[in-house]
């Protein structure tokens, strides 16, 4: 089997475009979190989103999904516990382990912040030429699938 030659200039241009877009998306996220009035950081919010999208999990699994050391995940979870955004529960499979899950206030925060993010992103997309929107959907769907990120489930967030 022969591999097709990768056009590095094209890959670099795509990487630059994604980096630029990610700056915009981080800014949208930061504004949406700040509007919530809660004093959580972007990394803490990311932990909440991982738990919302993937369900309760062991601390080590959460650390893997966040791409951080278990000690960093522990500090994040401890702060979220203090804010009552998550809860520790015995693992129903082993009882010797605990799993981290979203609390009702954590679910509400993720839902509210995600709604604000969605509204802000929608305004940006509305300013795009209509004939380019489907290409963006296709490209971002492929990009997130390649990165292993599960799609947003609107019904879990109460939008449908």
UniProtKB/TrEMBL annotation:
<dbReference type="GO" id="GO:0003677">
    <property type="term" value="F:DNA binding"/>
</dbReference>
<keyword id="KW-0238">DNA-binding</keyword>
<dbReference type="GO" id="GO:0006950">
    <property type="term" value="P:response to stress"/>
</dbReference>
<dbReference type="InterPro" id="IPR039422">
    <property type="entry name" value="MarR/SlyA-like"/>
</dbReference>
<protein>
    <submittedName>
        <fullName>DNA-binding transcriptional regulator, MarR family</fullName>
    </submittedName>
</protein>
<dbReference type="GO" id="GO:0003700">
    <property type="term" value="F:DNA-binding transcription factor activity"/>
</dbReference>
<feature type="domain" description="HTH marR-type">
    <location>
        <begin position="11"/>
        <end position="145"/>
    </location>
</feature>
<dbReference type="Pfam" id="PF01047">
    <property type="entry name" value="MarR"/>
</dbReference>
<dbReference type="InterPro" id="IPR000835">
    <property type="entry name" value="HTH_MarR-typ"/>
</dbReference>
<dbReference type="InterPro" id="IPR036390">
    <property type="entry name" value="WH_DNA-bd_sf"/>
</dbReference>
<dbReference type="InterPro" id="IPR036388">
    <property type="entry name" value="WH-like_DNA-bd_sf"/>
</dbReference>
